[in-house]
Hints:
Blueprint: H1 2-20, H2 25-40, H3 58-70, H4 74-80, H5 98-108, H6 113-121, H7 133-150, E1 153-154, H8 155-166, E2 175-178, H9 180-183, E3 188-189, E4 192-197, H10 201-209, E5 214-220, E6 224-229, E7 235-240, H11 246-254, H12 257-269, E8 273-275, E9 278-281, E10 284-287, H13 291-297, H14 313-318, E11 333-337, H15 348-357, E12 362-368, H16 380-396, E13 401-409, H17 420-423, E14 428-432, H18 441-449, E15 456-457, H19 475-485, E16 488-492, H20 502-511, E17 515-518, H21 530-539
Parallel strand pairs: 4-7, 11-12, 12-13, 13-14, 14-15, 15-16, 16-17
Antiparallel strand pairs: 1-3, 2-4, 5-6, 6-7, 8-9, 9-10
Amino acid sequence: MGKNTEIADIFDKIADALEFKGELVFKVNAYRKAARVLREFSGDISAIHPSEIEGIGKGMVEKIEEYLKTGRIKKYEEVVADIPDGLLELLNIPNLGPKTLQLLHKELGIKNITDLEKVINEGKVAALPGMGEKKEENIKKGILLYKTGRARIPLATALKVVREVINPLFAIAESISPAGSLRRMKETIGDIDILATGEETGDIIEAFVRQAYVKEVIAKGDTQASVRTSYENLQVDLRVVEKESWGAALLYFTGSKAHNIKLRGLAKDRGLKISEYGVFKGTKKIAGKTEEDVYKVLGIEWIPPELREDRGEIEAAMEGKLPVLVRQDDIKGDIHVHSNYSDGMDDIEKIAMAAKRMGYEYIGICDHSKTSKIAGGLDEETLKKRTEEIDRVQEKIKGIKILKGMEVDILSNGSLDYSDSVLEKLDFVIGAIHQGFTKNVTERMKEAMNNPFIDIIAHPTGRLLSGREGYNINIEEVMEYAAEKGVVLEINASYDRLDLNDTNILKAKSYGVKFIIGTNAHSAGMLLDMELGVGTARRGWLEKKDILNTYRWVDIPLRRRRR
């Protein structure tokens, strides 16, 4: 994982530098694609020849070999030689693109975020040609989002790190689990906490600090240790507890704080005391070995970690009304997957075979429509060629249905990017907004839902976890209209979206909305992001019946609006 990530980071930095300098888009995208391939490659790049990795071209192979031999890439050194340290980092700020950054660097001499904040506070950005107060304010908001985002870890990153940490410890620890907000599958994580138990506490601690992923041992004691990982430079804390307290400790360190406080109140009402060590009646310990035992002593059934936010889950458990949450193995297909016909990396056959290996009954190829030119949107002629290829691949691959879908742009007036005569030939249509995030978004979405051929609204709020606020939208009005029109709302499982989020899912469910979980995958490997979408759905209290891609395709009620 280490070398893969190191090289991918360098490729991304080269792309940033080229973009800042105004280089041709295809050259920038070549480095972006190579970085993405390396991040998704599960093997060790140093253990094979890089040409064996599908999607890595000859030029990138040479640069990878150069890094593996010398620890440097000359191209990177060349393109960043005349760019001040810290300047390219500013491209991660929402609302600040490469052309604007060029202008600010040239005219105001900004070199880092401190410089940028200073000139904004002095009103100098608004005074530049083509800028103005509105653009200045948007950049200011972007800085705030950027700083907030850096303080927390994306769920996908935390899961990847914690699995790397936990897997070698299974052979030593009797029980081991992530705790905290990661176990509750929150979209971003404050700290990575791991809990373990076993006979040989010292051996568990030693195995933890000596693994290959450890960049630095921050602290090490008899029952606790903290390390910093080489991947993403994250701190991971391990606590080893006694077996008799495993359940109580796991419950306590999973949280949330509000959930735990309410449980302590419930225990107090029963003359009990609950802590990380167990449940006590006076001085006698009466539960603590398992979470189920702790909840049972309090008179309630076990509550799934994703629900533990004090949003009514304890009351529901007391009444025996907890939802039976959707599970990963309930998902029968993924219908938001991009192929190499638009901006995806893999061809239709590779995607279909990957989906079949996952046990799916169907897979929906869902490329961008023609207006999304930057994403390689398909005109009608190219769409026809893709349809023909899907038919050819379907003849070849049995045991999984390959669906013909499209992610169709919702235009500025609310109309769709293709005519109805084109849309009616598709198995399903996902409507999405990719341009114009501030003007009439609510009205455009509602107008689009009037079209009988639209089945699903993709990523309904448009936010990105990495730092984009999303559309200027009345999301509850959209939810209510979707329920009225029978349009499905997507839970987009892409690691940087997770949109709808849990609170919006709860709102939408109250309106009677149905959902689909789509990965928005741009490669076969990204189909695994379904886990993130399922976790988000579970946080939103969703059951199997609420999510349409838990149905068989013949039973899925998508196209009923067209009849």
